[in-house]
Write a structure and sequence with these properties.
- By secondary structure, the chain is of the alpha/beta class.
- The protein folds into two domains: 30 residues; 156 residues, Glutaredoxin (3-Layer(aba) Sandwich), CATH 3.40.30.
- 32% of the residues lie in helices and 19% in strands.
- It contains five helices and nine strands, in the order αβββαβαβαββββα.
- α2 packs across α5.
- The longest helix has 26 residues.
- It is globular.
């Protein structure tokens, strides 16, 4: 084999490896976001009926939110950093929506009903947007909602005992349409401006 051919082969293989590395880096650092196109059944299985109790002791069901978009997050109030960040991003995004904010209901569903009682959530809610509805209930009431939204939640096995345990859980923010159907999901760390723009684009056809 001629040296020129060998150099070409080495260059070609090196280029492929470099290109593969760039593609891997881009995919690894791209936020996960799924959009359900009209008529598609891709991610339509997320969401469904629920009946839980809000921070004021009132029973709330999915049916009463029909006609509005829902922005839903599953977490727990004793979460040290991930949940507060997700809820704060939702809060800031709703502020950015300005006059459109009345079209959307921000909802927090606890995965830790033992500690997240009605009274506790009423206090916790004061840290975020006043429109937030914070939901709790018995494990028997919350478990079906976790399954419907495909949420993973379990006590951490880090060895912490007593009431100071942590929870392992998925951290997506779910956007549901006016019929309660899944539209899109976002990482909890999504920038508020990006989150607001993604939400608002679903309002535009109605203007």
């Amino acid at each position: 084999m001629k040296k020129s051919h060998l150099r070409y082969i080495v260059w070609f293989i090196s280029t492929l490896i470099a290109a593969g590395g760039i593609i891997y880096y881009q995919l690894k650092n791209t936020p996960v976001s799924y959009v359900q196109s009209k008529g598609s059944h891709g991610m339509a299985d997320i969401g469904g009926p629920f009946s839980l109790t809000d921070q004021n002791g009132k029973v709330r069901t999915n049916d009463e939110f029909k006609g509005k978009f829902m922005l839903v997050y599953f977490g727990y109030s004793f979460c040290p950093d991930i949940c507060p960040l997700g809820l704060q991003n939702m809060t800031e995004a709703i502020k950015l929506l300005e006059r459109d904010r009345e079209q959307i209901v921000p909802i927090f569903v606890t995965i830790d009903p033992t500690r997240d009682t009605v009274d506790h959530l009423k206090i916790y809610a004061t840290n975020f947007h006043p429109n937030f509805i914070m939901l709790t209930g018995s494990e028997a009431e919350i478990d079906p909602a976790l399954k419907l939204f495909r949420v993973y939640a379990a006590k951490s096995t880090d060895g912490t005992n007593g009431k100071d345990y942590l929870m392992d859980h998925s951290t997506f923010i779910y956007l549901m349409d006016k019929d309660g159907k899944f539209l899109q999901q976002f990482p909890h760390s999504t920038d508020p401006e990006r989150l607001a723009k993604a939400i608002q684009k679903h309002f535009l056809p109605e203007r």
